[in-house]
Model the fold of this input.
Amino acid sequence: MSNLLKNVLADKAIHSITKFTTLDFPNRLASIFWFAKCNMACPYCYNPQIVRGEGLISLEEALNFLRSRQNRLEGVVLSGGECTLYPHLEALTCEIKRLGFQIKIDTNGTNPTLLERLIENEMIDYVALDYKAPIEKYEEVVHYRHVERFEHSLELLIRSKIPFEVRTTLHNDLLSVADINAVIQDLHVKGYRGTYYIQRYLHVEETMGNTMPPQNIFDRTKLLDLLPISFRN
Done:
């Protein structure tokens, strides 16, 4: 174990652990580590308790959990919140790899420098990148101004050989057909050739912005036919 990780094993960066999922890591039985904190404030976010809360689980506890699941689970999803905000994520991925697990990260793409190192050092196996809104509406929708960092991450992933997906959460009152078409057009121009996943917002009582159920109708027949598109609930 690295000296760095020895010094941070007591860090409580993880808010909670989902012990088992068949849905969140393609073709893998996995668990999910939910990292506390995020640098965006998406109004429709389902995880305000994670975004606003503190970490409750130490890295040592998380690694011990994985040791108890060796030969039973295949992968770990590092999600949140925003996992790439955690300053010792590289050291943690090294230890997870040592235990024999594959790693997927869910990210908003705002730490392209870290993402590049994780890819180059073969520390991650799959990435889900959230494309929140058309570039010109990014700050309005997610209250984050450095959209160029997201664009850097997207272009980095397109150039790389790592499997990844791009996805957008769709709340009909926040994003229109024209907005989604702007995203599709941008992905096409940048050279993305994978499936574009559109995740339908499902109303829950508590979100970051206390978001109401959508009122507008979204006509998916008007979407551009430039990419494979899959709708998720």
The CA atoms of residues 194 and 232 lie 15 Å apart.
